[in-house]
Design brief:
Strand content: 15-25%
Number of domains: 1
Order of helices and strands: HHEEEHHHE
Helix content: 40-55%
Strand order of the largest sheet: 3-2-1-4
Oligomer: single chain
Largest sheet: 4 strands, antiparallel
């Protein structure tokens, strides 16, 4: 009984090797096309094999949701999701991120290469 209780409250030990394997499962490059619709930024993500969609409120939320969608589509296990999400493998450059926040820019697109990081 105590094992079940501990399992509910303690996170499993995360493996650096598994992190690297899951990180390398992610595509090397993605293409993001977006447009503003009311208070949301709505985007189409292409990873060279599949196309999927996401949305966010504001530039930061949209970038987080792009990463979330890519991790979900590439079946990153929940226990590794948090640490890989913190790495933000797909982060647009400064100019592209600023365009997301500009009120007068209604749509655009950009490519993002996966960041080179490891555990």
């Amino acid at each position: 009984m105590f094992k079940k209780i501990f399992k509910c409250f303690l996170k499993p030990q995360l493996s650096g090797e598994a992190f690297d394997a899951y990180f390398h499962r992610l595509p090397e490059k993605i293409q993001v096309r977006w447009k503003k619709k009311n208070q949301f930024i709505v985007g189409t993500i292409s990873d060279g094999k599949e196309v999927y969609y996401t949305q966010g409120k504001g530039a930061d939320d949209f970038v987080n949701m792009v990463n979330d969608a890519v991790y979900t589509m590439h079946e990153i296990p929940k226990e590794y999701y948090g640490i890989i999400s913190q790495c933000r493998a797909y982060n647009p450059n400064k100019a592209e991120k600023e365009r997301l926040g500009l009120k007068n820019v209604k749509s655009s697109s950009f490519s993002i290469e996966k960041a080179l990081i490891s555990a």
